[in-house]
């Protein structure tokens, strides 16, 4: 494989946040009607000006700078004192012990943790089970490591009280030799939570086939009313075969500090540290200090954040469900909503560009997450409430305008 | 290649900064005499409490946090406004144009830039010319990408006014198919600067054989009196075949913010951004703001920093040269010194551990940089002046104690 062919699949042209690099050539010819005015909303990521970082996070960062060299140059896996604080809190949150010394690594964002976890477990030709739809980088990470992707469908649209993962496809993948299963829970982009029965089944299958599971739980703190969350790492399977990934970039709006953690399997964490040593040395030393504020937010702060997101979710659901032909499942956790649009007279990718040009609305095309999601778009609704609702109203106006 | 074998070569046990994870089992049996008291010095990296971060760097970081979402979520390659400021300054410094939009990427540290540059140019089986000795991660990066290393010797110990790179070995490597040449200038660990004639010869050979050159110029601002520095990217070779890497982690003591840049070849930078999107998304958004202070330090600040380092260098040279059997070349740039010790009664790796246990002195073993450097140790002398001198006096006392 040449380096050119290796990178040809790693396109970022439609990736969230990269819209400013897109050219709009050719689209003018298919535009219908005039632009709709309104405050622009970038749904490709959360708006940390609308939902601001955890109170006290900057102060704890400043204390890190004040601490000087000790905080600037930590072990590659992160400062031990901070790992110890986190281990206790993460064990409490997930319901299973975390080994601060050998079973936890601090990374530059959860993206850093995902990269290190995949590159530390997948080598050329290894089969990896990947959910469709799921976080777009999962597929790219497997491709970069030259693994072989074994897709597992998730019928989130019709399932109720569960994700809709096709467990028989997952077992087929394990039976065909998949040694790794990588998935996000809550699912990105669909915003659904795996049921207890599904998580227990995943644990049982992974145990039976000796597979390693990497579970991205980035959004597992932002659960809406009535939703139960089951932590895979607290189920019956060998703790050395599970790596859990979390971080404070989303719910806590701390993305600007680039922080994530991976915890679980000591052997895999050890490899991840070896790799981090040549990839970026360590998560930013001063930024690591910000983790001291994580899982230690002011009383009531997280509850309020959840309530505010749930209120936006409910209003967006109303807008979408009032429009004929839009299908959308209720987001159970996190701040993604993934409506499937009706048949349009323009291609899915073109409609995404039209939305940006005519409505000032940036969304991420569904094809980033699954080849079967061309009719869907993902919105991160962690936004100013009124602006988000108005932007979705413009979106459905354009859906009507461009219907097939 | 299994994932286990892939990682077996990536050991970090002797890597700088990881000493706290080392066990001291077995060493007691070979200790001679008592410990020598004195203020411990960790020469594995610079002491940012002795040489503090650039004045104003924290304030410009704080302004980045204040800017909010715009600064937290930049393009993957970094904020365009900051890239534009940097492009102008880096063009002025290196003597060749820098394309802010397409030819520059901001990375998590220079380590991040090195990883992305190598992983964006080297695929399985590609031959890569690597200097011996050179920065230890260079070898590991090539191994991780499953490239084939073509070693090129540098006889820095005997050369004068040049690095001593064996240009005929470099040409042999190109003739044998090496398509990439990766090297640091000033050299890490030897602290020597390539002469104009050497850089021109490298440019001519790279042009002749169509090779890509990745040059790590991390220490190119910290030049001592009388030293000329030649920028490879300003020489006669195709600008698309050169990537230059720099960052403010060392001379400017900004390592805690994890910042680096790579600039040059548009095609390679484009690949690096695609890879960054799945490795860590972007350099920490708020940290990027700190680059506004880079190459914009207060008048006289850099000159003073250079003078202070030169004074430490001169005192360490005196200590080493007063000890029979220690050979050391004068550091021309940067803050590394790389003395070769006389024959000892203990192995090189054991002596490094003894130094830590009996003298409170942490150094990096020469074998991290080259298989031919077992008798050498690397010291980063960006330390408190008096403490560094005292620590080196303890080091030479132990050299005398453990002589063969």
UniProtKB/TrEMBL annotation, chains A, B:
Family affiliation: Belongs to the class-I pyridoxal-phosphate-dependent aminotransferase family.
GO MF entry, a single one: L-aspartate:2-oxoglutarate aminotransferase activity
Catalytic activity: L-aspartate + 2-oxoglutarate = oxaloacetate + L-glutamate
Highest rank taxon of the organism: Bacteria
A Pfam family recorded for this sequence: Aminotran_1_2
Positions of the Aminotransferase class I/classII large domain: 66-395
UniProt protein name: aspartate transaminase
GO biological process: amino acid metabolic process
EC number(s) recorded for this UniProt protein: 2.6.1.1
């Amino acid at each position: 494989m040449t380096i050119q062919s290796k990178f040809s699949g790693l396109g970022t042209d439609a990736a969230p946040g990269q819209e400013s690099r897109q050219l709009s050539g050719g689209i003018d010819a298919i535009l219908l009607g005039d632009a709709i005015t309104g405050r622009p909303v970038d749904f490709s990521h959360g708006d940390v000006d609308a939902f601001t970082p955890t109170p006290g996070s900057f102060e704890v960062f400043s204390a890190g700078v004040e601490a000087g060299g000790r905080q600037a140059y930590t072990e590659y896996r992160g400062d031990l004192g901070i790992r110890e604080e986190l281990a206790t809190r993460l064990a409490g949150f997930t319901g299973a012990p975390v080994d601060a010394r050998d079973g936890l690594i601090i990374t530059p964002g959860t993206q850093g943790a995902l990269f290190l976890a995949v590159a530390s477990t997948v080598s050329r030709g290894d089969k990896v089970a990947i959910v469709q739809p799921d976080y777009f980088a999962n597929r790219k990470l497997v491709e970069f490591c030259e693994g072989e992707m074994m897709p597992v469908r998730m019928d989130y649209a019709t399932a109720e009280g569960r994700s809709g993962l096709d467990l028989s496809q997952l077992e087929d993948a394990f039976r065909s030799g998949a040694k790794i299963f990588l998935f996000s829970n809550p699912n990105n982009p669909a915003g659904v939570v795996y049921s207890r029965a599904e998580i227990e089944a995943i644990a049982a299958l992974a145990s039976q086939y000796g597979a390693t599971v990497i579970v991205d739980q980035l959004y597992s703190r932002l659960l809406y009313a009535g939703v139960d969350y089951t932590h895979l790492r607290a189920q019956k399977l060998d703790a050395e075969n599970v790596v859990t990934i979390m971080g404070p970039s989303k719910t806590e709006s701390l993305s600007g500090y680039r922080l994530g953690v991976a915890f679980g399997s000591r052997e895999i964490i050890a490899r991840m540290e070896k790799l981090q040593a040549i990839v970026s040395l360590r998560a930013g030393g001063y930024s690591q200090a910000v983790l001291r504020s994580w899982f230690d937010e002011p009383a009531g702060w997280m509850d309020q954040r959840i309530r505010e997101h749930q209120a936006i979710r409910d209003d967006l659901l109303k807008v979408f469900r009032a429009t004929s032909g839009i299908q959308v499942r209720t987001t159970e956790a996190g701040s993604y909503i993934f409506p499937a649009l009706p048949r349009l007279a323009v291609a899915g990718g073109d409609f995404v560009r039209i939305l940006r040009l005519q409505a000032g609305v940036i969304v991420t095309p569904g094809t980033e997450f699954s080849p079967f999601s061309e009719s869907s778009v993902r919105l991160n609704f962690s936004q100013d409430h009124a602006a988000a609702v108005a932007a979705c109203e413009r979106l459905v106006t354009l859906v009507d305008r461009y219907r097939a």
